[in-house]
Automatic annotation (TrEMBL):
Pfam families per the UniProt record, alphabetical: TraB_PrgY_gumN (PF01963)
Signal peptide span: none
Lineage: Bacteria, Pseudomonadati, Pseudomonadota, Gammaproteobacteria, Oceanospirillales
Name by which UniProt lists this protein: TraB/GumN family protein
Residues annotated as transmembrane: 273-290, 302-321, 327-351, 384-407
Region feature (Disordered): 1-22
Record-linked InterPro entries: TraB/PrgY/GumN_fam, TraB_bac, TraB_PrgY-like
Keywords: Membrane, Transmembrane, Transmembrane helix
Compositionally biased residues, Basic and acidic residues: 1-11
């Protein structure tokens, strides 16, 4: 059956007064009280404790996903990942973005004296103390980032990435405006707010989809009749949208729509075929060159090797890679550029890990080191990520530059 909701009701007199907004909805026999919180606010954490101390609730739902809950419970979880596995699965960019977001969060905590998400931590602690069921109703942050990436036009992706890195690393102090944004939104919204207000393609996966997702998760995890009264702790920026979804009938099988909001579009067939097409064109260019003149053929091979090697190996120098890594990348990049199954960044990161194995202190200090630009180079974990990313970018640029050189030599006179 459909989950039909009434309009939001008056706040029960038995609940304490809170600094943040409250909205209450009744669906069947279950009441949902939504608390709009500020993610950088001691008062919001106090609101959560006061509401749960009233003993009016028999379950708690919070705006966290499994990954962020795990990160909150274990702050060093990011640094404990198997780096080689990260590179092999192509997750280096996602891990670097997560580190950048974590660095932004740590800088806010250091500057304001308040850890962002203190109200979520309070909800977790109080739910555990009172032995109440705890539900994580937000979408996985990695899925949200992927849907943002796939939803925006390709020409905006670089500006998003540079905006993320710039907002995290360009200033020593986080501005008061950024902290104020966090009081109404969350870490993702604060980071991308410059773009979200002007881009429907970005606003949809970042905010609107998550409003719907959290309502569906409530319908799935706390359907009418399972609990009497659920406290839902969400950012104030999501209060209106999530509440509107609760006011309207939700699907009888919320899992189906929820899984659709978790799906990430697969790469286009053209994008998957492009590396193989480039390889075929380059090899064809070599063949044409040798068929015309042996010296021309060897000239094309040499230029391909030098351009790829210098740009990719040189990029690892920017990352302050080990000399052996630089040399290995120089020789590997021209070959990996002709083999789409393995990348120069993977080779570079593998050699760097072998030559400079991260130590325990690198993992334990990772969150603090990446709050400063120089820390990305000083910490062996984050520096290996830089080696991977820069070697990959250098090889990609080298492939296009060398490819155009070959085309020019063969057809441009």
């Amino acid at each position: 059956m459909n989950h039909e909701a009434t309009s939001h009701e008056e706040i029960p007199a038995s609940l304490p007064t809170t600094s943040g907004p409250l909205k209450t909805f009744t669906v069947g026999e279950t009441r949902y009280t939504l608390l709009g919180t500020a993610h950088v606010s001691a008062e919001s954490a106090d609101d959560v404790r006061a509401l749960l101390a009233s003993e009016a609730f028999d379950a708690v739902a919070i705006e966290l996903c499994d990954a962020r809950h795990h990160s909150m419970s274990n702050p060093d979880a990011m640094g404990e990942q198997d780096l080689f596995q990260v590179f092999r699965e192509g997750k280096a960019g996602m891990v670097a973005a997560s580190l950048a977001l974590g660095a932004f969060q740590q800088r806010i905590a250091d500057q304001s004296g308040i850890q962002p998400g203190a109200e979520m931590r309070a909800a977790v602690e109080e739910a555990s103390r009172l032995e109440l069921p705890l539900m994580l109703v937000d979408r996985d942050v990695g899925i949200t980032l992927k849907r943002i990436y796939s939803n925006v036009p390709w020409w905006q992706r670089f500006s998003l990435f540079s905006g993320l890195i710039g907002s995290v690393l360009s200033r020593q102090d986080v501005s008061k405006e950024d902290i104020e944004k966090l009081k109404e939104g969350d870490m993702l919204e604060a980071t991308f707010s410059e773009f979200a207000a002007e881009s429907e393609a970005l606003y949809t996966p970042l905010i609107r989809e998550r409003d719907r997702y959290m309502a569906l998760r409530l319908a799935e995890e706390a359907p009418p009749g399972r609990y009497k009264h659920v406290l839902v702790v969400i950012g104030a920026g999501h209060l209106k949208g999530t509440g509107e979804h609760l006011e309207t009938p939700l699907p009888a099988e919320p899992k189906v729509e929820r899984e659709l909001l978790e799906a990430t579009p697969p790469p286009s067939k053209l994008w998957k075929a492009l590396p193989w097409l480039i390889t075929a064109l380059v090899l064809t260019g070599f063949a044409i060159g040798f068929s015309r003149n042996t010296d021309l053929g060897w000239q094309l091979v040499l230029e391909w090797f030098l351009i790829n090697g210098i740009l990719s190996g040189g990029a690892t120098i920017i990352a302050m890679a080990h000399p052996v890594t630089v040399i290995a990348t120089f020789f590997a990049a021209p070959l990996t550029s002709l083999n789409p199954t393995i990348g120069a960044g993977f080779v570079a990161a593998g050699v760097e890990l072998y030559m400079r194995k991260p130590k325990v202190r690198d993992f334990s200090s990772l969150r603090h080191d990446v709050t400063q630009l120089k820390g990305w180079w000083q910490n062996r974990v984050s520096r290996t990520l830089l080696v991977f990313i820069l070697a990959t970018l250098g090889s990609a640029v080298g492939t296009w530059v060398a490819g155009f050189r070959i085309a020019g030599a063969l057809f441009g006179g």
